[in-house]
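Weekly modeling sync, notes
Attendees: AB, CL, MP (scribe)

Item 1: holo prediction request
CL wants a bound-state model with 2-oxoadipic acid before deciding which constructs to order. AB pointed out that an apo prediction alone won't tell us much about the pocket. Agreed to run with the ligand included and paste results into these notes for async review.

Input as submitted:
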Amino acid sequence: MNLARERIEELAQLLDDCAVEARDTPKVTDTYPEMDWDDAYAVQDALRARQLARGAHLVGYKAGLTSFAKMRQMGVESPVFGYLLDVHAVADGGTCGFDELIHPKVEPEIAFVLGRELKGPGCHIGAVLAATDFVMPGIEVIDSRYRDFKFDLKSVVADNTSATRFVVGGQPLGVEGVDLRTLGVVLEKNGEPVAFGAGAAVLGHPASAIAMLANHLGARGESIPAGSVILSGGITVAVAVDKGDAVTLRVQNMGSTSLIFA
Ligand code: OOG
Ligand code: MG
């Protein structure tokens, strides 16, 4: 750690305020280039503590930048991890307040719901599939608190990996007998298909993103509790949305989930 406790708390407050007030800020490593990985995750932890203290509940986790399409889009080269809160869940088919957000984008993802706790180190795809109750379509709404959506990995980790809203729904599917690599996904905006992909875009197999997440959390003394929902990462590039847009994600054999920006 290179940053003092007060700096960590200040940065968490800055990012929290930006999210609440829907305003952007230059990336935090511009001000603190000496920030290291532990500092970045410490800011994320402090941000989470602030939100939980306001009454939010932790409902799950997310992996991000797990597909080459996303890594290329954002100019970075490794996955990052964050958390999901109940206050950020949108009901299936529900409305997301556009004016509460800065410059939102949507991502098609496969969401995992765990039937059993998952704990690293040593977690692998097999352990993930064994612990998974079902998978379902998930749309993540990301909204970087950084100006022009520009960041480096440490800055985006501090900002809870741009996590903002999410919706899961459709038809839950058990993983037995399903090849998650070849599951096709279609993302539609206002009825037009705008992005397509298959599960393998995420690290070769979406469950490997969950294994990486469990190993990452395990190294920090945290596990993923049974019942958690986990977003495994955008399969395609993220798609910008405007006020009034309706977004639907269709996943092969899993129906669809949707939301409206109003
Ligand atoms: C970082 C978060 C990326 C994903 O699914 O790849 C992410 C960002 O691009 O803002 O959630
Ligand atoms: Mg995502």
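Recorded for review: Residues 62, 64-66, 70, 74, 107, 140, 142, 144, 156, 161-162, 233-234 surround 2-oxoadipic acid (ligand 1) (CB under 6 Å).
Action items: CL to compare against the apo run; MP to circulate these notes.
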